[in-house]
Design a protein that fits this description.
The protein has about 80 residues and is of the alpha+beta class. The chain has one domain: SH3 type barrels (Roll), CATH 2.30.30.100. About 25% of the residues lie in helices and about 40% in strands. The protein is built from one helix and six strands. Pfam families: DUF903. Keywords: Cell membrane, Lipoprotein, Membrane, Palmitate, Signal. InterPro entries: LSM_dom_sf (IPR010920), YgdI/YgdR-like (IPR010305), YgdI/YgdR-like_SH3-like (IPR047807).
Length: about 80
């Protein structure tokens, strides 16, 4: 199956849109704890309101921090 010019352009446009959407989701953040520590994360941490935990990924592992131990979460620009 050979794609026409319009077909190739359409596939490239869809690929670009998907890549742009993924890049837009990434929000590097910094978690500042009440004891003065700082943790940088690749993506914005998830705040679980039911369990009072903040979850983020570090070195391929899921890490949970008690919300009471967190002073602030800031987006790194």
């Amino acid at each position: 199956m050979q794609l026409t010019y319009a077909g190739r352009f359409g596939m490239a446009a869809v690929s670009f849109a998907a890549l742009a959407a993924l890049a837009a989701c990434s929000s590097p953040s910094q978690i500042n704890t009440r004891d003065g520590q700082s943790v940088s994360t690749a993506d914005r941490p998830e705040v679980d309101k039911d369990k009072d935990f903040i979850t983020y990924e570090k070195d391929g592992r899921e890490v949970q921090v008690n919300k009471a131990d967190v002073h602030s979460i800031e987006e790194i620009k």
